[in-house]
Predict the structure.
Amino acid sequence: MSQFFQAWQKRKEALQSKALEQYTNKSMESVSDVTLTTNVEENIQLIEAQFGKCDDLVVRRFQTKSKAQAAIVFIDGMVDRNVISDFIIRYMTTPDITYHDPATNELDLTDKLRQIVRNILSGCAVLIIDGCQNAYLNNTRGWDRRSVEEPQTESVVRGPRDGFCETLCVNAALIRFRLKDPNLRVRHMVVGERTQTDIYVMYVDGIAYPPMVEEVIARIESVHVDSVLESGYIEQMIQDRRWSPFPQIQNTERPDKVVANLLEGKVGILVDGTPFVLIAPAVFSQFYQSPEDYYERFYIATLIRLIRIISISIALLLPSLYIAFSSFHPEMIPSRLVIAMAAGRSTVPFPSLIEALFMELAIEILREASVRLPGPIGPTIGIVGALVVGEAAVTAGLVSPVMVIIVAVTTIGSFASPSYSAAIAIRMLRFPVMFLAGMFGLYGIMLFLIVILIHLSSLKSFGVPYMSPLSPLNLTGMKDMFIRAPHHLLKTRPMMFHVQDKTRMREEDNRK
Amino acid sequence: MSRNEGHSWHQNLSMWQQICLMTSTLIGVGVLTLPRTTSSKLFEAGWIAPLIGSAGAFVSLWLIVKLSKRYPGETFIEYSHKVWGSASRPWVGKVFSLPWISIYLVYLYFSTAIVSRVFGEVVVTSVLWQTPLEAMLLTMFLLIFFLCMHEVEVVARVNELLFPFIILPLLFIALASFQKAEFGNLLPINHVSIRSMAEGVYEGIYSYSGFEIMFVFFAYAQKNTNKELAGFYSLLIAALLYMLIVVAGISVFGYEELQRVTWPTLELVKTTQVPGFILERLESAFLAVWVSAVFTTVANAFYVVVYSLRQLFRKGIWFQRIMAAVLLVPLFYFSLIPQNIPEVFQVASLLGLSSLFINLLIPVVYWVVILIRDMMSKREEKDVDG
């Protein structure tokens, strides 16, 4: 523990000394590190030289009310033009207005060329005035953005309908709006040497375990890549085990889920340009837990959670159980059923492993195709694939009817997981277990499950064992693992994330 | 706190993890033959054997706990030097402790082989008739190798996760078979002589071997846990389960019939019928789930072997991984040496005997040496004082 703390302390010191250099990384190094002069035309040339002959760089020259030459430089399409004309140019030119500065809501002064170029690129309008070495950086960002809509990948029956959008500040505001706590901390970082993507690391001070937060920040800082186009880039570069099939960082489109997780002592990572927010650390329960569990009453929530666990097990194991039963252990199936199954399989020319692989492959192709197809055609393909092909394959004697049922149930089961990336892991692992079942029957399935269990036991996400609270066993945590205990029993936050403030609910404030 | 090292937050084994480690190592292939071996000498009263056997096992486990308490945070490999050697001449300790360490490791090594072999025989003869025995052994060894790639805390967590898969099927089988039990088969209780009692207990002792892995794992226990209590609970769980299984076996089949059955517990599974259950015959399912029980037994024992070698040579995790791979190859051939099931059983009972020997002898000898050294150092102190 003490060793760990020393390492953390060292890292913290290193971070503080590095904090100032955050803006200067490689692609910005091509911009010469010079300061502006007092001459407007010289300055314009300096800036234009950095952009080359770039046609969307707009330079608007005008004369201020004190007859000084001035110019505004911005990039077309990234700024709100009304703000520029009404509150910068008009304020600077109309003699009746006695106010000297542009009337924008965020104003900064600098003479560093690098900072100016970076701000122009992120949608600022830069005002340079003759005789003044400092340029005004006006925040006029205003590009077209998607509005807040219902999340596409995580719908709930009961719960808020708003989801994240592609704009970082809107996403941060969606979280702030739900968590009006001054202890909510936001750390701004820039990753991507060319894309210069903004990243917010959010956590609640006093709940999140500080070394864990520092670890998240340190890992993001250690990412050196030219582009960050989606949060998946960050996720894959900062996860603990890069070769694992299991997602070790959760992603979500739902602000309420992020807030709930921040309050459990986790860290949220918001990346500009994507509606998917990362939550670290993640544990195995992400596979079947949904924010809805906490909004419904606990009987229903527990039942639904159990149903999800069953459907995930079905998605993982049902085809391989079919293979094992039909080719190794037919004595286990009741005799009437085994006769029916054998009758269905009598025309099938392949062993059940090939049959199952064939059908699973077909359904994966169908699924992938229906994702890519344009909206109106998508359902058509589903009907064509599921009904026509399935029915025809059975009639043609290529697959048995039981196999069609099994593949259909498996596919439906894999959709019951509330987390898409977790469901993909399950989908993927279905294939090796089918091979093992084809080789060793139930014994093969068990071998595979033990391998997976060993792997899951060895996984850690930012220091938190992946299978906690199941292993290491924590009885308080078990209240929110398979079942969802009523809220009045969930008085403490989950311990596995090393929360600093353990109380979620004080005894005396609540109706007994 | 780098990505590769992992964190030290959970390095210690909780009491529950210790219980899981011990119980899951105890319960292995012994259970499959337990009703037959205990009732061969004790007849109707076969169920007494696991109870008395557990008392013997507890004495030995208690001594092991005391040893680990005297050298907190150190494994058998680490404290052996200190028991046998002196600070001035460390090589003495190394030389004298080496025979004990090697007996211990060789025993665990061969028990891995024989337990895997027994399990392979069970599966090949009763469920997967066409699968060669070599394939069973190979897959089991690959699984063991995969576990040996990891650190101690992972082993503890794997045992913790597999624990319900070991306990629940046994409980289920024992309780479900009481539908067909004739409790008259258990009577009379009192016609067992002391001599046959002793022999019966000896037969049952093999099923209690396995807790000697705690020579190593107790070193990683959390400081504030009560190790004696953990040992007591795990032996209690095992004893109760064994007793249930033996009672079920005797009451369903009667002791005469049990003698003619190779795997009585598996026969119990075959007779089990659950009304409304969608599965008809359960022995394949039972053996599939039983893989986890056998795996925890053999993998824990083998893990102790490679981990001890790693400590003995003061190497890192990579040495452990390479050793695991290297040692598993001869083990494959060793496990194929017995030609048939009777020979396997002979070797197994021999191993049971040596487990009794090792489990009692090593702690007793160590304690005698420690006590003698304590007395000598006290006398020296007195001499200095005088």
User: Anything to note?
Assistant: Chain A touches chain B at residues 1, 3-4, 7-8, 11, 211, 215, 219, 240, 328-329, 331-335, 440-447, 450-451, 453-454, 456-458, 460, 463-465, 467, 470-473, 498 (CB under 8 Å). The first helix of chain A runs from residue 2 to 18. The longest strand of chain A covers residues 184-191. Chain A has three domains: 31-139, 168-282, 296-465.
